[in-house]
Design a protein that fits this description.
The structure is a homodimer. By secondary structure, chain A is of the alpha+beta class. Chain A is built from 3 helices and 5 strands; from the N terminus they run αβββαββα. Chain A has a 5-stranded antiparallel β-sheet with strand order 1-2-3-5-4. In chain A, a hairpin with a 3-residue loop joins strand 1 and strand 2. At the A-B interface, helix 2 and strand 4 of A face helix 2 and strand 4 of B.
Chain lengths: 145, 145
């Protein structure tokens, strides 16, 4: 069984690349610096059900993404969350929050409709995150991205 | 600087005990099986800023709590989240969600006011979680709980 990104995640995000365990996605909402990690394990639904080795990789990748996001796009608080109530495929949100962002201090999920990036702004943010990230990142081929 | 639980967490929860890194709290909301881990590090605000050893402990404790909660109080999905927009002290939520719970599929935070446990029900749930948990758990003295 090969890994396929859930269509909802595919539709809502831009692809940053593949780290050793996870696909890294930028949520297409220009209001929040927001990266999602999706472990490339086709049947994964809960973090604690991953193998110990995969859990360790996931948390290393999460820490690297957390640090890069807060350095590239500084904010007041980082929200890290695995919810999955709407999309059952295991995915881990990392969202930089600011006291002046639209949803603060409420969670962002369900608050209001996303505001898509202008292409140039998306390109800049993705380049900045990739440059700050201390993780090997492979390009995802178009056919599987 | 010694560890003191944030007054908001103190007021909203019942104390399960101290694991090697974290204080374990049961959210006093009978509608959701909901355990919060609070690393006993006075200045901690973000997971990625903990030492590597502490991060590893936190994720081990998180996996143990996740497994125990889903075994003791089975549900459809586990939500795991470090938000901290309201309470800056680092804390990690673990919430068993069910398709028939009041907030499903929305996040629980900010959905509706908590429904406190009856004392007997709280006692039963805490005993069940403690019995299922594969973690050394120390009683927290009254004065510091």
């Amino acid at each position: 069984m090969s890994f396929e990104l859930h269509p909802r995640l595919q539709a809502d995000t831009l692809t940053l690349g593949d780290a050793p365990l996870s696909r890294l996605l930028l949520m297409n909402d220009a209001r929040y610096p927001w990266v999602i990690l999706v472990p490339r394990r086709p049947t994964a639904r809960e973090i604690y059900l991953l193998s110990e080795a995969d859990q360790q990789l996931l948390w290393q990748e999460s820490a690297a993404v957390s640090r890069a996001l807060m350095e590239a796009c500084p904010g007041d608080k980082l929200n890290v969350a695995a919810l999955g109530n709407m999309v059952p495929q295991l995915h881990l949100h990392h969202i930089v929050r600011r006291h002046d962002d639209p949803a603060w201090p409420a969670p962002v999920w369900g608050h209001s409709a996303a505001v898509a990036y202008e292409p140039e702004a998306a390109h800049r943010r993705m380049a900045l995150i990739r440059a700050t990230l201390i993780l090997p990142l492979q390009t995802v081929p178009e056919t599987s991205s």
